[in-house]
Every structure is written in C-alpha cells, then in structure tokens.
Amino acid sequence: MTYDAITPFRRRVDAVQIRCHATLMQPSSGGSVDKWAILRDLVAGRETFGVSDRDLTVLQALVSFHPRNDLGDPERLIVYPSNSTICDRLNGMPCSTMRRHLARLVEVGLILRNDSPNGKRYIRRSALGEQRFGLDLSPLLRRADEIRAAAQRARDTAAAMADLRSDISLMRRDVISLLDLVESQGGALPSDDPQRSLVNLAGRILRRKPCAQDLWTLHNELTTVLKDIRGRISTDQTDELGTWDNQNEQHYQRSDKEDLESECCKEKANGVPAAEEPAELTLDAIVSTCGDIVQFVNHDIRTWSDLVHAADQVRPMMGIELSVWSRVKGSMGAICAAATLAAILQRFTQIRSPGAYLQALAAKAQAGQFSIDQMIRALSRRDAPKFTAVNC
C-alpha cells in the first residue's frame, strides 16, 4: 500500500482525534460510576451513539483491563494492553477486526487515544510521577449522564413498543373472533375480504420488528375495523330482536314428561331397557343431596333441564371426555346421566377415575342393574357405606 493510499485514512483519524480531545477537555461531573452499570446503559442506548454490539464487545474487553469496578479519577482511566492481548480477551478476534471496532469507538467519542511517541502503549514511572500511554476510558465517566439518559429513553421506547404490540395482538384476536361470529350468523365473507387481509397483514408485521410509525398505523386501522364490525353486529341483533324466540332466550318448560328428549327410562330400540328414572325422588331431593354441583355453575337448578345443563358444564372439570359423556347420555338418558354425575361429584375425592366409573354405571344401567334412586338414597344416609358398584 502506497503512502497516498493511506493518507486519507490518517487525515480522518487526525480529525477524529481533535474532536475527541475536545471531549476530553470537558470538566468531569465528579464522583465515580460503576463500569459495568455504565456498560449496561450503553448497551440499552447504543442506537443513540451509533455503535453495534460488536463495538461494545470490544469496549467491554477494554473496560475489563481497568483494575477497579468504579471509574473515578480521569487521570488513571488509561489502559495500555497490546493489540494481541485485547484479541486474546476477545476470544481470538482477528486483529484487523478489533482495530476496526476500536476506530469506531474512538470516532463516536466513547474512548480516546493517548498515544506515545512511537505509538506503543505503556506506563512510564519517574520521580515526577507516572505517565500513561494507551486507550483512555475517561469519556465513559464524562458522558455518564448522557449515557444514562439515552438508556432511559431507549427503555421507555421499548416498553411503549411492547405495550403497543400487545394491544395490536389483542385487537387482531378480537377481529378474528368477531369475523367468525359474523360468518356463523350467516354473513359469509369473501376470501379477499379487506378485514381478513388486514388481520393477515397484522400477523406478518408482528413477526418482524416494525418501526413505531408502522405499528401506530396498524393500530388505528384495527381500531376502525373493530368499531365497524361491532356496529354491524349490534345493528343485526337489533333488527332481529323479537322475531326469533331463541334470540330473546325465552325458556319453555314442558310439563308433559313423555315428550322430554332426555327422559331416563325410555327403552332402547333394540329392546334393552334403559336405567330407571328417579321415580320416587324429586329434583329438590337430588339437588339437596348432591349440593356440590350447584357450586360449580352460575345458575340455579330448578328444572330437569337445568340439571342436565349443569352436568354439561361440570363434566370437563371432572376430566370426563365429551365422547364418553355422549355415550353415557345415550345409554342412560340425559336426566339419569346428569343425576349420576352429580352423585359422583359428591364423592369425587373417593373415586379414582370418574370417567371409567361413569361408563361402568352406564353399562350396568343398560343391563337393568343400576338404580339412580338407590344411589341418591345411599348418599343421603350419612351412615351408609360408600357406593362401590364398580371398582374404578
């Protein structure tokens, strides 16, 4: 390499040296700073200073050569390791790479060069004192307040961005749920619906690292979409209110027990008798004996339908699969199955496998060997032995 080729580089470094020495001449704020704490702040606010993680790795290696944890006296903040020693501490980083990051740290004014006449780094001690030649870490002390402020701004920005991303994620979920509700009510949407497209776009954006402006734009668009869908659903429900009985959630209790779909003691089509219905026991007797089921539902149990609905709600909490529950209701009838489940729940801590126990009782019911009346009466007697029809 000729002299003319390296002259521009030397001129640039000389200009940087002049600017950095002006920083060195600034008075210190006094006191000391923890070198590792200031490094953590610098990592948080590194975008303000325009340095990369590799630059800060080199700076961390330089700081580790300072013997104390505190950066105090600016006159004693010059470290003088050789390039090979720095590279060894950087786990074998190539010297050319290390020098490039070192030059970047000097350029942004985080360290200063205090070169000796021959460019070497060393300490000279004499009767007049000591003189250090090497890399000056005093800018970290002099710019500590600036570094802390930049770190705090970066942390605040990161927290605000995290909150914004969380809001967008929740809004995206709400849009998906509302669109599914619209489709379930008969309002089929085209595949290229702009609202669906916006939901897909939001998912792609959240997987990347968008800027704050992109996130705010997406947030505003999702807000508009949510408002539009909610208004549409509210209008549809207002228009249909009063025309369908099931929209008003009107309840009809049928007194004709023979028409009850889930009647317990209907015989099967193949001639196998189902379980006996609670011929002697009333609903109040079942609820008073098996009172635990009332604690797990959010409605009163005043009719047989309420009991069946309560059993449907409690069934997942007891670990009984839906397929098992459907088969049991088909074989025992919904009312007898619900009453049996309420009785099992009453002795839940004493039954190892409620699902298997319920299936075994359903099999006995198909064979005509099970009576829900006897089971409830056994529960009502405090001194009665535990019902162990099946070992489950």
TrEMBL record:
Domain Plasmid replication protein C N-terminal: 23-180
Signal peptide region: none
Annotated protein name in UniProt: Uncharacterized protein
Domain of life: Bacteria
Record domain Plasmid replication protein C C-terminal: where: 283-381
Lineage: Bacteria, Pseudomonadati, Pseudomonadota, Alphaproteobacteria, Rhodobacterales
InterPro entries for this protein: RepABC_RepC (IPR047611), RepC_C (IPR021760), RepC_N (IPR005090), WH-like_DNA-bd_sf (IPR036388), WH_DNA-bd_sf (IPR036390)
